[in-house]
């Protein structure tokens, strides 16, 4: 438009002429058509249409829609010098709200939730829900990341949309981490004691042996009798721990599309499990100093054996088996 205006001005045509005004109107119509195109694409997707979804992969419509947006963003980046000075640029906060935020909130999130209505009642279903959420938002973030300093940095409103995507992905990863930790502690028989100890004082906050005195009040709790601990922990721990690493890593690698995210969740889970086991063992010795042998029979893995079994300090498995994103 600026080029035509310059040409008309050189030809003596006033910028206030009907011809120039018509071009300005056409420009606004063209911008509206771009928004209208993406809106129509999204409107064709039904929130209850799950035919293109499976247990964990993003729906086909999402990949296709993101591809179309990326094409527009790439084209905009190539020609943004002339557009950046306009009062009403093609891509703005308002535009991104309609083509990025609304499809995510009104379509994607609702569609995934509709696919897993029993997620609150079943850990397995919740696991599938979180897997789908992580994979979808990881796809969106990875495709939009090249534009984090251009399209999504035009103004404060534009940057907010990329932050929404990033925050949502982190939220779902943290929820998956919480779920996998819960299952790990349950399967090893230590879940009850993990919750009990943290009610008194967060195990992750222990600095030295002086903090072990915080748990002296547990001595009166029937659950803290060594025979009770043995009955609840010893067998599940010995049965599950040797397979825990392969179990968790295998499930995450099989379903999560990003090995980096799978690696992050796995490593954090096992570090927290190991931290608790080591402190659990030491606290019991502190509470029952005359029964160290009994405690070592109940929690019969040494600290080094436990860390080896859960891969603490080992080379990250994703670097050995899969290329990173």
Walk me through this protein's architecture.
- The chain is mostly helical and 325 residues long.
- Helix content is 69%, strand content 0%.
- The chain has 13 helices and no strands.
Q: What descriptive keywords fit this protein?
A:
325 residues; mainly alpha; 0% strand; elongated
Low-confidence runs:
314-325
Classify the beta-strand content into a percent band: under 5%
Percent helix, as a range, is: 55-70%
| Approximate shape | elongated
- Give the N-to-C terminal Cα separation: 41 Å
Number of helices: 13
Helix vs. strand class: mainly alpha
Order of helices and strands: HHHHHHHHHHHHH
Q: Report the mean per-residue pLDDT as an integer.
A: 86
Topology of helices and strands:
Blueprint: H1 2-10, H2 18-43, H3 60-78, H4 80-83, H5 93-115, H6 123-144, H7 156-187, H8 191-200, H9 226-255, H10 259-287, H11 292-298, H12 303-309, H13 317-321
Please give a quick description of this structure.
The protein is mainly alpha-helical and 325 residues long. It is built from 13 helices and no strands.
